Amino acid sequence: MTPLWLRLWHWGIAVLFVILTVTGIVLTYSSSSFALMDYGRADTWHQVTGIMFSVLFVGFLAASLTNGYWRRYQRIGNGLLSRIRKFASYVWNGAPMRSDATDEGPSRLELSRGFLILIQHLLSIASIVILSPLLIATGLVLYYPELMPETVAGLGGVWPFALAHYWAGLAGVLFLLFHIYIATIAGLRRMIKGR
Amino acid sequence: MHRQRNPLSKAGAQQPFRGIAGARVSYRKQPGGWRVARHRARERVMRAWLGLSLVALVAVILLPSAGVAQPQDLMKRMRCLACHVGESQHHLDGKEHQSKSSTIAMPEFERGDHGKMLCADCHSKGFTTFPHRNMKTETCMDCHPRTEPKEAAADKPYDFERILNEFEATAHFTEFQDEKEKCCGTATGKVGATSGISVVSKRNRDMTAKQRFTCEHCHEPHYFQATARIKDPQAILKNDNGPCLHCHMDGSTVALKDPAKPNLVAAHAYMPYAELHLQGTRCVDCHSSVATKVAHDLPKGMKAHQGCNTCHSIDSVLLGRLYRYASAPEGTAAGFHNAGIMKDGYVMGANRNRWTDVAAYLFVTAGLVLVGAHGGWRILARRRKEGAEP
User: B214: exposed, middle or buried (C-beta count within 10 Å: 0-12, 13-18, 19+)?
Assistant: First the structure.
């Protein structure tokens, strides 16, 4: 059973993440004559949703640590990489069959579904442990550019943090792509109805 | 800075008279009598003359090779510079730092675009006698655009006719066109000189508003340098913002009168990081049309907001304006677009990195291919299953 607070948090942060992705693309990939939306508005939205994202994430960490929900991730994470490796080999080589098996066993497509659900678990944990903290940390640093070092390697001091934020954002876009696709396999019911 | 008193002034008349090079000539009786005193005085005067002659000889030999005015030009200038040279030699109202441009800071003048010109080239009438009467000073448009082939080519990109038309449509011109025109530079003071900006009084700013606005109010002709000669963006920034801030600085009474927006940062609060934008860009980067490189149309208020992505973009207009002459080879080598800007900071949207861009295209494309391939596999499998069912 997925608790209501977690479902609400998940959909809240999902909406914010989509807004951050779209506005981030506008801020990075505009030309002087074309922008997907008003550049100034994109900047304001990116900052506001970024702060809301940070607050929601910190709230999630606090709630998980308080009510013990973090143990679920610990459970899922135990041996996850070895299970992923195992399912990857099943997808590649076919599932091992007992010699006296009568049916064909699971197809490779079904095995790949199991593999992708394990990837979904990995993505969820990675997004909480690595991706979100990295996005928030680099985003907060960019929010206070006046506190940056004057220069880094002879250039204005903002660029390493801007590049780090860009790479974290790119990882976030890939996360979003795979997360949404795998959700079409695993189903959305659990994150809507809770079971 | 050492200041000499004008010997014609009242205060100067009360001082003991000093001869050339400060040789003090005393007419009081000395021990040894008048003859000894006169002999010593004559000897000092002779030494001073010898010293001056030597300096003049060195100047005659060295100055032409240094690319400054020819000796004959120097002598022509000397007539004017005798009174009008120095940071604060000739005080009109006797107040500290209130020279009202009656003196010229020669090092800055000679560094300026008009540094090789003679005073009389512009101060053409009424200046050869003292006190000056019925004076006439040429204006910028009396000479520009110049007609000699080489000079005409240099002036052509500026399109002075268009500049004049744009300027005459601005509030600077229309609001003060019925006021009296003052001699060049008297309104703004020595804005190009290093000490000129910080010492401008409120009174001086108030006077500015009561004069007809001319080119010279911003482009102080004695010290003006075209950006093509300055090149360094930070120097261009300081040079070009100086005349604007001279009047539009915080606490000014002639502009930014809105009490709800008492200072520049408040007036630009609609902009994210207003203070950083004000520090890092020229006023004219927004307050002039981005359509041309040397626009003088000065749109007011929110009309100056020409879209953030005019600068925050891969084809940022900053590269054709403030950073036109800037480069940062180390940034370019590291793959950054528009790296010239990165010497001073990082402009989101303009300073993308081509390697991260390539990586982003590859990763996102690979992700879409994987998702598409698996999705296609699922669709095919479903169709096959549906086809196999009776």
Answer: buried
Binned at pLDDT 50, 70 and 90, residue B37 comes out as low
Residue among A156, A27, A162, A144 at smallest CA distance from B308 = A27
Give the angle subtended at the CA of B303 by the CAs of B297 and B304, to the nearest 5°.
65
Per-residue confidence (pLDDT) for residue B228, from 0 to 100:
86
Residue A99 lies inside a defined structural domain of this protein: no
B277 close contact with A: CB closer than 8 A: no
Integer CA distances (angstroms), A5 to A9, A135, B209, in order? 6, 23, 63
The number of distinct structural domains making up chain A is 1
Residue A75 maps to a domain:
yes
- Note whether B317 contacts A: Cβ–Cβ < 8 A: yes
Compute the count of residue pairs across chains A and B with CB atoms less than 8 Å apart.
106
Do B173 and B167 contact (CB within 8 A), yes or no? yes
Of B308, B351, B360, the CB nearest to A159: B351
Q: Which one-letter amino acid corresponds to residue B336?
A: F
Give one word for B335, left, alpha or beta, with left for phi > 0 and alpha for psi -120 to 50. Answer: left
Report which secondary-structure segment, H or E, holds A156. strand A155-156
Q: Which residues, 6 or more positions from B140, have their beta carbon under 8 angstroms from its beta carbon?
A: B214, B215, B216, B219, B221
Contact at CB, B367 and A109, closer than 8 angstroms: no
The ipTM (two decimal places) reads 0.90
Q: Count CB neighbours of A49 within 10 A.
A: 20
- Name the DSSP class of B309: G
Q: What distance in Å separates the CA atoms of residue B140 and residue B188, rounded to the nearest whole number?
A: 16
Asked whether residue A131 is domain-assigned, the answer is yes
Q: Does B359 contact chain A (CB < 8 Å)? A: yes
pTM here is 0.75
Q: Cβ–Cβ contacts within 10 Å for residue B248, how many? A: 17
Residue A27 with chain B: CB contacts under 8 Å: 312, 348-349
| pLDDT tens profile B255-307 | 555 566 668 888 888 888 899 999 999 999 988 888 777 888 888 777 888 88
Report the CATH number at residue A173. 1.20.950
* Cα–Cα dist A42/A158, whole Å: 20
Report the candidate in B82, B122, B126 with the shortest Cα–Cα distance to residue B106: B82
Q: Contact at 8 Å (CB) between B221 and B185?
A: yes
A29, A31, A32: best to mutate for the B interface, most B CBs within 10 A: A32
Residue ranges making up the domain that contains A84: 4-93+104-192
Give a yes or no: residue A39 inside a domain: yes
B375 to chain A, any CB pair closer than 8 A? The answer is yes
Chain A CB contacts of B372 below 8 Å: none
pLDDT at B95 over 50: no
pLDDT band at B247 (very low <50, low <70, confident <90, very high): confident
Structure tokens at A139: 């985003």
Residue A81, H or E segment: helix A80-93
